[in-house]
Amino acid sequence: MVKQKLVVIGNGMAGCRAVQEVLKRDPDRYEITIFGAEPRVNYDRIMLSPVLAGEKRFEDIIINDLSWYQDNNITLHAGRAVDAIDAQARQVRAGDITAPYDKLILATGSDPVRLPLPGIGLKGVVAFRDLDDVDAMVAAADAGGRAVVIGGGLLGIEAAYGLARRGMEATVVHLMDVLMERQLDPSAGHLLAEALGARGVETVLGAQSEEIVGRDGQVAGLRLKDGRTLPCELLVLAVGIRPNVALARAAGLEIGRGVVVDDAMRTSDPNIFAVGECVEHRGQIYGLVAPIWEMCKSLALGLTGGLGAYEGTVLSTRLKVSGVEVFSAGRFAGGEGCEDIVFRDAGRGVYKRLVIEEGRLAGAVLFGEAADGGWYFDLMRSGAAVSDMRETLIFGQAATEGLRGLDPSAAVAAMADDTEVCGCNGVCKGAIVAAVTGQGLNTLDAVKAVTKASASCGSCTPLVEKLLKLTLGDGFKTQAGPKPVCGCTHHGHEHARRAIVDLGLKSLHAVFQALEWTTPDGCASCRPALNYYLLCAWPGEYRDDKQSRFINERVHANIQKDGTYSVVPRMWGGMTSAAELRAIADVVDKFAIPSVKVTGGQRIDLLGVRKDDLPAVWSDLNAAGLVSGHAYAKGLRTVKTCVGSDWCRFGTQDSTGLGVRLEKFMWGSWTPAKLKLAVSGCPRNCAEATCKDIGVVCVDSGYEIHIGGAAGLHIQGTQLLTKAVGEREALWVICAATQLYREEGFYLERIYKWVDRVGLEHIRRHVEDEGLRQALYDRFAYSQRFSRIDPWAERVAGRDADEFNPLSRRMEFAPA
Amino acid sequence: MTLTLDTIVWTDVGAVTDIPLRGARRVPTADGDIAIFRTGDGAVFALKDACPHKGGPLSQGIVHGRAVACPLHGWNIDLATGEPMGADHGKGCAPKVPLRVELGRLLLGRI
Ligand code: SRM
Ligand SMILES: Cc1cc2nc3c(=O)[nH]c(=O)nc-3n(C[C@H](O)[C@H](O)[C@H](O)COP(=O)(O)OP(=O)(O)OC[C@H]3O[C@@H](n4cnc5c(N)ncnc54)[C@H](O)[C@@H]3O)c2cc1C
Ligand code: SF4
Ligand code: FES
């Protein structure tokens, strides 16, 4: 029998695997010819990353060496790119070689996307696709210096890691705020960025590239939209791939995003097939090998007399960076009826998240420990019901399979004595039970103290409690510890605050991980609190997270019951002028603001402003010198004053002047809850200073400084904190007390509650001891350098503009 | 002639990335605003921008997990169903609005 001619274009992963699959089924059916543009045999492209990192050599990653081609009578034209397919004549041409075919397989892979950036043609700009690219990068790395990789996906990260391993200073620049955002959630992305940092790879997130800067034709740096330039001698592009369809298009085949194939991998020409990354199947294109293996099976089946039926592939991803285990599969942005199970182990840097949808596993993200990735992936693909293993699922296959089908407490009872309960401290069930019975322990704290179980991360706390309950029955006492911040954690505010400072945590995700939050991204209670603690701990460094702020603080106005806003400009110490009043009157007219009211805080409230109008209203107010009054803020609100010695016949000091001075120094500061001050010129106390958070009562000999008043939900007079002699001293004391409150107060805890909690003496000691007071004052003053900025002016200048504009007005015109 | 019962008109209202992660944007319509939310892990949802409690604009709330906390009195609304969660469950709902994502674009549906 005359053999049919099978020609393959592409000597890569898909092309050669397809041939292998054909040979496996029918070794004698075809006379095979392979064209490969690369001048080498078939190798494992995904292992280029370890080659770049110097962890493997090229010889180690060859899949099929020359003898394979010889043994199977395959003609290999390596280093020969096919120029054209003549589908009519059924032949392909590569330079001077023409090869006829009965069946043709296209496996041309894909090309790296080249960004249309100025400077893209400079020397030292490379992609990461084949061995030549690796050679170019290795040569550059041998010369040392800095590398910038554009693209924070799998490829970019592996490139940067490899270059760092070879001694370069490597930086990944990513457009999104989360690395590998299509595979990872923000928590895992954050951990990945940290792990890379520890391996010498810096990450710049949310950064748009603008221009590749060159010197003498050689790359010298990357300029970002925000104006920064990152100097480098090597620039790697890893921003995505595009199916290589040029040949197929020229041959007249149907093309979508890739070469369109049916379930048998057949193109629009019945004799031409396509597999791999160049393919579009059921609207989907792929960039990983798992689907390719399945495509090749289906193709081979069809080519050997069967009927191939490829149906698409569910994807999973593993990152190949030594010592950093990352696994992701399925959907983790679930919809209706989705439920998250989150496990964090700060000690070991582990984060796991499973998404369960209608009783089945829909997605998994594993960081730091990914051994169970394959098992989760199988559960996902088989669509197995997981409700009965929900309790133990997150602990992986070993923990779950043994306990399957048992109810939770029976499951705990059935656990073997040597099953590890506390991963952080390596405590197993037997040790806990022995300690409980042997030493008569009956609280979680006692178990923690004796065995160290659940003493570190606390994620095993529920399990330890179950063990206690199981061992002791009714003798178990539930714990009354500090109240947790919210349902996402068992830690209280104090612990969270202290950890932020002690462990140097500088982002929300760092806190979530270090303190083992049980939700992926916190809730409406903890996020604003943590955001404040971070801001207070790291002024000037921490970037405020506006999505963690209540609407009023996010848009710098107070929301009203009908969804409009009120606008309250500052009137320093309650003083105003004809010019300010005129500007306010003009704004009211111009924007038809329905209500103007004098507030209880000695200033004017414009009520009923439409959200879209806010920036314009502020712009006009700014023009008259008026700034935000922070009437919405957990921060400094008003400083009420009375007329004082300027006019009043009883005034002892310049109470108005001191009030203005205080407000001008302290405005813009964020505090745990709102902060209101007042200064009265004499003990008649017309500014009501003794019911404010901090109040000053002027007397002949100086200034009495009071603290801890309240006149809202709760009424309480202030307590005398201390006396100050001059205005400067009064300012120092007040700022120091405020700073102490800023550093110690729990979020939403007004000063009077804080005073009750820590005791007046504690505060007095800090403001009367000159050293302590000075240090507090200095920290306050430092923080104010970043806070005394009018948020209105920033918004007028365009910051967060999308907050004020509707997404689109097109629906208004859509047919009803 | 084919007869379809599916008479949804889809309108492109912007790109998915126009909505910040853990954020929301609103789309004004003749019968009130529609709120489109994007969660921390990138899922998008559309609801009428009115809280079942007292009509608070949900688009102005804090998005956490797959819920939004209403800016007026802090009810937590499940983004996938529009229903209040926890203690307020069962007290009405913010109607869902059909939403599709195609090639990174948000398509809002009107029935
Ligand atoms: C406008 C104003 C009433 C007025 O028309 O005079 C007002 C209006 C509101 N107050 Fe007030 N308070 C106003 C002075 C006061 C005062 C009097 C004062 O500051 O001298 C108090 C008692 C003093 C105190 O704070 O202890 C006061 C105690 C409260 C409380 C109770 C706070 C507490 O911890 O006990 C709340 C509720 C809260 O903050 O949780 C509150 C909350 C509010 C809110 C923000 C309610 C809200 O969350 O929407 C109101 C917003 C109005 C707006 O959109 O502008 N308002 N509120 C006053 C604005 C002052 C300013 O210029 O900034
Ligand atoms: C560095 C790196 C790391 C990766 N890591 C992973 C991973 O961890 N997991 C994973 O699943 N995937 C990974 N991938 C992706 C994976 O390698 C690809 O999905 C896979 O190689 C695609 O196979 P393919 O045969 O379609 O394309 P390729 O392997 O690119 O093969 C196509 C071949 O066709 C040749 N060719 C193109 N045009 C012509 C022509 N006209 N004539 C002759 N020959 C031509 C090309 O030179 C090339 O050799 C990685 C990719 C890279 C680059
Ligand atoms: S007293 Fe009550 S109703 Fe009046 S402004 Fe204050 S919070 Fe609103
Ligand atoms: S209007 Fe939403 S909670 Fe009241």
Distinctive features:
heterodimer, A: alpha/beta, 5-stranded parallel sheet, 40 strands, 32% helix, 22% strand, B: 111 residues, mainly beta, globular, disordered N terminus, binds siroheme, binds flavin-adenine dinucleotide, binds iron/sulfur cluster, binds FE2/S2 (inorganic) cluster
Would you give an account of this structure?
The complex is a heterodimer of chains A (816) and B (111). With 816 residues, chain A is an alpha/beta fold. Chain A has 27 helices and 40 strands. Chain A is 32% helix and 22% strand. In chain A, the strands form twelve sheets. Chain A has a five-stranded parallel β-sheet with strand order 5-2-1-9-21, with helices on one face. In chain A, strands 11-18-12-13-14 form a five-stranded parallel β-sheet. Chain A has a five-stranded antiparallel β-sheet with strand order 23-24-27-26-25. In chain A, strand 25 and strand 26 form a beta hairpin. The longest helix of chain A has 18 residues, at 727-744. With 111 residues, chain B is an all-beta fold. Helices cover 0% and strands 37% of the residues of chain B. Chain B contains no helices and nine strands. In chain B, strand 3 (34-38) and strand 4 (44-48) form a beta hairpin. The chains are: A alpha/beta (816), B mainly beta (111). Chains A and B meet through helix 19 of A and strand 1, strand 2, strand 5 and strand 9 of B. The complex binds siroheme (SRM), flavin-adenine dinucleotide, iron/sulfur cluster (SF4) and FE2/S2 (inorganic) cluster. Flavin-adenine dinucleotide binds next to helix 1, strand 2, helix 2 and helix 8 of chain A.
Share of helix of chain A, binned: 25-40%
Largest interface: A-B, 43 and 48 residues
- Average pLDDT for all residues of chain A: 91
The helix tally of chain A amounts to: 27
